[in-house]
Amino acid sequence: MPPIPERLRGSPLLVVSSLMFAVMALCARTVAGRLSVGQVVCARFALGLVFLAFYFPLTGTRPHMGRPGLWALRGIFGGGSVYFYFIAIDRLAVGPATLLNACWPICAAILGLFILKEQVNGYLASGLMATTLGAGLVIWSTVQGGLGLTLGSGALAGATSALLSGAAVIALRALRGDTDAASIFLSFNLFGLLFGLPFALQDWRPLSADLLLPLLGVGVASVVAQMVFTYAMGYVTAAAGGITTQLTPAFSWLLGALLLGEPVQPLSIVGSLICMGGVLWGTGLVPRLLLPASRPAP
Question: For the whole model, what pTM was predicted?
């Protein structure tokens, strides 16, 4: 990626990434039931590989796999997480599925504490709790018709996706010290495609013209979101990154209200404000953007 001012790295970029992840979830929900989960997963990762096929030659770079084992684990964990996340979207509403997947920062923070020896200070811990609470309120408010979180296959898939996402982020954080974002993204797409391909072939459904645009949206949004996310995670801890990405459920609610006609409820507004407050408190985003020379962020 081109040089980015230091004050805009990290959390500000993760806000952009969270928005694009919400767009991806919205597009995936529009094809739920009409295509198999494996097909949607393969479409996402195949478009990512197409992007990289142009990226490396145009930038004059080559993939770097300094630690092949860890590089492969990042892709395996990430690919499995996306597969189970899309299962949750397919079998639940997009709201509960996103809520379950949004629990991944808790897994990442715990794993980061023991594996990477990262410190979780009071600002990050309280911010993480606030943003998780706010995200939960936002998504819970979108549940319609009595649909709730029950211990079914969809809910278990969502919880599994959160656990695998946390493990994938830890592998990503460990790699970012000596591996560029595009090489890590290559692992994610390669192993993700291999993970989803057997399921797509097992339950292949015919593609119609009206499904191509949502599938393209899933692929393009995921490429932008994941590249920005991978780059930004080189400048924040796993816990700090997890706090900022809790904006994804809030963005999902907003897009649902604007594009799918979901009603705007008071609980959604309260949850969004709590989520935003948790991000600002936990990461010091406003001081970095507006007062970069005054004092370091908490």
Answer: 0.73
